[in-house]
Amino acid sequence: GTGSANVVVGIIDSGMDYRHEDLKANVFTNSSEDAWSDPLNPATGNKIDDDHNGYVDDWKGWNFVNNTNDPNDDNSHGTHVAGTIGAVGNNGVGVTGVCWQVRLLPLKFLNANGEGNTYNAAKAITYAADLKIKILNNSWGGTDNATYLLEAVQYAADKGVLFVAAAGNDGLNTDEYPNYPACYEVSNIISVAASDQSDQRALWGGEDNPSDDCGFTCSNVMAATPGSNYGPHSVDLAAPGKAIWSTVPGGYARFDGTSMASPHVAGAAALIWSKYPGLSSTQVRERLFANVDQVAGFAGVVATNGRLNLFKAMQ
Ligand code: CA
């Protein structure tokens, strides 16, 4: 499988470099909204909310930080996540996403410093659910257990949206120290830990600590060894999250974090849905869980005891 333009993944993050050479062919456009006359210039919309959803000229996503129709990425985190999900495959440049053909919808709520508030995140989730997209990637989190955020995630679940979330980077057991939205008890959530090149739980320290630049608000309780969060109840599976090479504005870079693991799972879900469009979000979730490779490094560490295996999940 190489994916499908019919599958849309919403990326709730710092935005996306939608002009990037390796992303632009896979950027979502809202066909119910008037097109920007210059496809790369959000100021060229017709200033009319053509689809009556409350957002004017939201042709390529939305910026919930500034409440504008320009979700361009001024941080780099969201562009990196986008490339892992769906950088264009087999085009002779850059990298390739897990899903070669897909539609990437940037929903910017993290600012240039990688900081955002859960109220804007909830608005972004609701916006995406109303667009009837299939998958949301959430490479962000914190200890703020806000009711309106939970309600937005539940709203998305009720609309059949699969909600993929990073487990967090504090090196903690989130069964004891929950991180949201990954730890909400909502049926559509997949919480993703980060694995390393040896199929162990990814650890980091010093300059590698990704908590500083990826939207996570650090827990008050820091583990002795910073690394991927885990939890035999609250975290579902692992996916690669160490030294991940992907797109950043104008180029490419290598990042660490559960923020990089979550988009591997979101991309996998997109590829599965491109092959089996009739599956429900529950069925895609179960298919991912049932087909992990059960490796020693994740036995008793995550609920499935394993790491993503997309090939098995596609069969
Ligand atoms: Ca609109």
Helix content: 10-25%
Q: Please give the radius of gyration in angstroms.
A: 18 Å
- The strand order across the widest sheet is 2-3-1-4-5-6-7
Strand content: 15-25%
Written description of the protein model:
By secondary structure, the protein is an alpha/beta fold. The chain is 21% helix and 17% strand. The protein is built from six helices and eleven strands. It is globular and about 55 Å long. Calcium ion is lined by residues 33, 49, 51, 53, 55, 58.
Descriptive keywords:
binds calcium ion; alpha/beta; two-stranded antiparallel sheet; 11 strands; 21% helix; 315 residues
List the helices and strands and how they pair.
Elements: E1 3-13, E2 62-63, H1 77-86, E3 101-108, H2 118-130, E4 135-138, H3 147-158, E5 162-166, E6 189-195, E7 237-240, E8 244-248, E9 251-255, H4 258-275, H5 281-290, E10 293-294, E11 306-307, H6 310-313
Parallel strand pairs: 1-3, 1-4, 2-3, 4-5, 5-6, 6-7
Antiparallel strand pairs: 8-9, 10-11
Structure described in brief:
The protein is of the alpha/beta class and 315 residues long. It has helices at 77-86, 118-130, 147-158, 258-275, 281-290, 310-313; strands at 3-13, 62-63, 101-108, 135-138, 162-166, 189-195, 237-240, 244-248, 251-255, 293-294, 306-307.
